[in-house]
Structure formats: C-alpha cells, structure tokens
C-alpha cells in the first residue's frame, strides 16, 4: 500500500512540476512573443469595410462588365505610391549579388582543391577563398548546425546546391582591385562579351539575373486535399525590367531616351518602374517578404510578418476611392481638373496632347494630391497590376466578401487606374482593363499590399 501511495505521489510531483501554475484552469497557450501590428515602411493603413463596387456613371464603351454591387474587404496595408525604379532596383541588385556570390563560392571550391582552410587553420583564407560558402568552420558548431550541414548543405550540385552563401565579405567592383585571377575569371563571365559591347563598355549581362522561388498554392490545396508536395510550385524567372517596351509599345515614335535611361539613370529613381510583367511583380512580392523576414529572424524577439502580395481588384478599387463612395475618380469628381483648371492626374487629356497635364511620359511617384487614404496616383501615371484574373462575368459570380475571382489557367490579369497614355475613362475607379500576365508595358507598374492581422479597434 505504501508503494502505491509513493508511486502516486511521484506521479503527482511530475505533473505538478510540468505545470505553469495555472491551478488546473483553462488559461490557453500563450505565445512567448507579444504580437503588435507594425505599419510597414512606405505603406498606409486601409481600414477595410463595405463599399459600392463597379461603374456608377455612364459606360461609354458599353463594356457592361462592372455592374454595381456592395462588397466588403478586410483591413490591409498598401504602398503609398507605385513601386519606384529605386525600390525595384534593390530587388535587382539583391539577385545580382546572389548570382555573383554563388559563382564566386563555387569557383572558390574549385580553386581550393584538397587544401583545408578550416580544420586546423593551417592556411588562412585569402583572395577568392574569402567568398567561399559560409559555415565552413565546424570546430564550434552546434548539433543542429552539424546535422543541417551533413544532411542539407552538401546536397546538390552547381546552382541547385543549397549551401549557405557568404554575405559578410564585401564584393569588389573596381577591376583594378580584384583580389586574384579566380575572382577576375568569375566577374569576366558575368559581363557581356567584348564583341557585343558598345564603345568598348561591357555591362552586366542582365540575362543572368534569374530569381528562383517557391510558393504554395493554398487555394487549390484546400479544394482538392491532395498531397502537400503537389501544390508546392517552383518558379525561376528573369527579374530585369524589359526596357525595350518604350520602343515596342509605340510604332513610328522616337522614345530611345526612355529606352536607354528610364531604369538606369538616377534622374528617374523616384519614378514608377515599368516594363514589369505580372509574374515579375509577384516575384518582387516574394522577395520583399523574404527580405523582411530575414531581418525579423535575425532579431530573436521579433515575429515573422505576413506576406507582401499584389492587391485584389476589390482591394484596389476600395483603396482608390479613398473613402468616397459613389465617386467617379479618386478625388471625387466629376472633372479631371480642379476649380482652378489644374489637372489632377497624369493622363492624355486631349487627342495627341500628352503634355497638357505637365508631363509627356510618367511623373514622380509622389505627384499630385493623395486621395482620402493618403495614396498617390491611384488614377493615371501608370496602370497597376492586381492579383485578380479578368473575367467579364466576375462581378456577377464573385463573393461579396473579399471578392477575388482567380483562375490559374486564365492568363489575363486585371490592371487598374489608367496611365499617362490613357484617356480619362480609364482613370475612373470603376473602369476595368486587362493584360496578359507574361506581358510587360511602358505604362503598367504595380504596388503591393500586406494583410492586417486581427481587427482594427475603432
């Protein structure tokens, strides 16, 4: 009997030691980190709510594809402006540096041969060895690091390897300061050939700027319920803007300066990026999420942020209205000019007259007055990609709660807002237009959104 009592006491002590002093009450499982919604840099908070979506005025084109209906959207954050050349260039440079560091790391392995730079420190890293794959020093690695190195870091060959890159060593750009011949060989392979250069100036080969990323098709997985791996998508695409759109979009027109300088010259840094396909815009969203969460992980007390993405068509229209229901334009309406005769957006006011509003092409992303939500150029300047596929009947069959009629097989994607080369009709908040997802234009850009988690207290 004493043995049973002692055993019972031991069990009681074990369970009591494992408790959180909740006295047996239902207290829930609390996260160790407190969550608070941090407004992303360069974004504004859109409180969400219901509004009347669709064309609320005359429809001169007779499209009949946007009948009015009341819908509700959730709270979210949206970029204050269109994504600029400078912001997109940050993405391009990250991809460029990744490509360079990957090639340098493999060249370092090739040049190293059987020499050991890490074991007993017999040889000090120098030259291209400074750019070798990270985590080579195994003297003080944790069991987790050892397991990951042995089971993952050494898996794969060539560009498919997932060995960690070394981001600590600065890249050398001045040709006269290249550390050794191996470094010269790698850098030489990244620039266009001499016989392709103009005036002997060899520029970086933009065809090498490929970004590989994975994404999960949540919606299809939820509807079919198959194996998870069946919905893990792997995409690789070139991220450099198609600068030739300035020529291809306009026949018998001289736009060479825009073709040569719009993305490259610092004079256009704060102008909206163009020449971006829908697929490239989505890749940018993935990279922006990855870039932010890499920082969040480096700070142990910070949680991960929701993914950046393209807005749905309903979110875009709700944001464009700026809180003005039944408005024709983001500033209200019904005119495209103020009471003083000043144009309120960058578009084509008169046939053949692109400059009447003060600009021939695009203007800086922060131009004209913002709408009621603090968003710039929701009408004109550049049209903007949305996440929604175009369907003429989508307003009739879509949900009234966060509507988004999406179809992976439908390559026509909604663009909204009109652009610098469009007439006023396309500036109206209810006007719909579309373009193929793999097509880039000189008049289409984008801005991103991020979900707001929880409910904003009023």
TrEMBL record:
Residues 42-449 form the Sulfatase-modifying factor enzyme-like domain. Pfam families: FGE-sulfatase (PF03781). It comes from the Bacteria. InterPro entries: CTDL_fold, Glid_motil-assoc_lipo_GldK, Sulfatase_Mod_Factor_Kinase, SUMF_dom, SUMF_sf. SUPFAM superfamilies: C-type lectin-like. GO terms for molecular function: formylglycine-generating oxidase activity. Signal peptide: none annotated. Coiled coil: none annotated. This is Gliding motility protein GldK. It comes from Tenacibaculum jejuense. The lineage of its organism: Bacteria, Pseudomonadati, Bacteroidota, Flavobacteriia, Flavobacteriales.
């Amino acid at each position: 009997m004493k043995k049973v009592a002692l055993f019972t006491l031991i069990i009681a002590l074990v369970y009591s030691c494992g408790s959180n002093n909740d006295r047996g009450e239902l207290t829930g499982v609390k996260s160790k980190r407190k969550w608070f919604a941090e407004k992303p840099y360069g974004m504004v908070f859109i409180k969400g709510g219901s509004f009347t979506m669709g064309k609320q005025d005359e429809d001169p084109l007779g499209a009949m594809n946007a009948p009015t209906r009341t819908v509700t959207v959730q709270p979210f954050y949206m970029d204050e402006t269109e994504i600029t050349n400078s912001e997109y260039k940050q993405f391009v440079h990250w991809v460029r540096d990744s490509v360079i560091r990957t090639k340098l790391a493999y060249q370092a392995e090739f040049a190293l041969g059987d020499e050991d730079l890490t074991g007993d420190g017999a040889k000090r890293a120098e030259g291209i060895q400074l750019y070798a794959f990270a985590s080579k020093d195994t003297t003080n690695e944790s069991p987790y690091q050892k397991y990951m190195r042995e089971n993952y870091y050494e898996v794969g060959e060539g560009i498919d390897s997932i060995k960690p890159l070394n981001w600590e060593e600065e890249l050398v750009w001045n040709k006269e300061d290249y550390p050794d011949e191996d470094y010269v060989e790698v850098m030489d392979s990244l620039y266009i050939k001499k016989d392709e250069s103009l005036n002997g100036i060899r520029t970086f080969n933009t065809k090498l700027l490929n970004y590989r990323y994975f994404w999960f098709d949540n919606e299809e997985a939820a509807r079919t319920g198959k194996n998870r791996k069946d919905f893990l998508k792997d995409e690789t695409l070139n991220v450099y803007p198609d600068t030739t759109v300035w020529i291809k979009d306009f026949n018998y027109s001289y736009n060479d300066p825009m073709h040569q300088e719009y993305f490259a010259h610092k004079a256009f840094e704060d102008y909206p990026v163009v020449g971006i396909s829908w697929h490239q815009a989505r890749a940018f969203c993935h990279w922006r999420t990855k870039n932010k969460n890499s920082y969040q992980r480096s700070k142990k007390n910070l949680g991960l942020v929701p993914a950046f993405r393209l807005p749905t068509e309903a979110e875009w229209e709700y944001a464009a209205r700026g809180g003005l229901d039944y408005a024709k334009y983001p500033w209200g309406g019904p005119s495209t000019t103020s009471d003083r005769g000043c144009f309120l957006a960058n578009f084509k006011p008169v046939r053949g007259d692109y400059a009447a509003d003060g600009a021939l092409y695009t203007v800086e992303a922060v131009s004209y007055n913002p709408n009621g939500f603090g968003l710039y150029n929701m009408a004109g300047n550049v049209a903007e990609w949305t996440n929604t596929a175009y369907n003429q009947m989508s307003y009739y069959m879509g949900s009234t709660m966060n509507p988004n009629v999406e179809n992976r097989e439908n390559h026509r994607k909604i663009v909204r807002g009109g652009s610098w080369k469009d007439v006023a009709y396309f500036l109206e908040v209810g006007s719909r237009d579309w373009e193929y997802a793999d097509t880039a234009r000189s008049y289409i850009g984008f801005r991103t959104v991020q979900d707001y988690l929880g409910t904003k207290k009023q």
